[in-house]
Task: structure prediction
Amino acid sequence: MLIGIPKEIKNNEYRIGMTPAGVRELVSHGHQVMVQRDGGTSIGLSNDDYSAAGATLIDTAEEIFASAEMIIKVKEPQPQECKMLRSGQLLFTYLHLAPDPEQTELLVKSGAIAIAYETVTDAQGGLPLLTPMSEVAGRMAIQAGAHALEKAQGGMGVLLGGVPGVLPAKVIVIGGGVVGINAARMAMGLGADVTILDRSISRLKTLDQAYGPRLKTLYSSVEAIEAEVTQADLVIGAVLIPGAAAPKLVTREMLKTMKNGAVLVDVAIDQGGCFETSHATTHQDPTYEIDGVIHYCVANMPGGVARTSTFALTNATLPFALALANKGYRQALQDDSHLMSGLNVHRGKITCDAVAEALGYDYLAPTEAINSAQ
Result:
């Protein structure tokens, strides 16, 4: 298979969809790999590294999209990239379609086959291609929140861990999944007063057993969230419904009860955000203020630590990329129901029920889509 790895073009996005080690694996299986020149240089992956691994260096994304059978990326294709996709071409990347009607429409029109990292599942009910970036984003959320709390950044001027004689910051984490656990661990490590909210009693029990009195656990309800954010210095939104738009759990009315200079970090912003007042920001301009509350809503947080993120992500995606290349997408999906869960768009049809429901499209089951195309 001819595989293309274009350079990412989203604002301040320096990750790349494949490392030289990944290229070498694909080439060793008999595949051809094209990598856009300078695609990885900003994170220390040189053109020579890719050439030595067996890649062909290509000057422009247009050339890659025009000839590759499978495109492997990191972030969702931007409008100009969507317009370069062609019917029957395979796209393997993060998509986050539910809150993005423009991208969805363009992918449907393209006729391409789009497999989303974030909806691929595993035997344990997890999301193996989302997990590494969720780990990164959860940890970064605390770094970003701590920075935003500084007075010069618009925050109230609170040190997360406090000092002897001064109380630490109160951190509220909404959601006890991978993002939430990693955020809580980082916040506890810095000495903050941390409470995590979740609707799963079994998850709260697991967290209680793992961390004991260092981590407060609380069942998530409207009343509980309302009470906790009122007292919070930093709130981390870490809620995920796979493939679907995130629920709005912190309302505009709740903002009015929060401390002046408190900080919200919305890690769910890729799926539309879990705060009513959230809108996507960039690493270049990461924060804004509403009702005295600082919002950090960067939509590609792991891109801020692009080298770490690239290696963490491609470690997880490579086995799936190999399966798609070795078997072709139809056979690979038929052989692996978990990879099948990643199919979001197939030749003009929406094959992810959460996306179809969120955006008002007719839903076609992935198995039906694959079978009808044969």
User: Anything to note?
Assistant: The two ends are 19 Å apart (CA to CA). The mean pLDDT is 96.
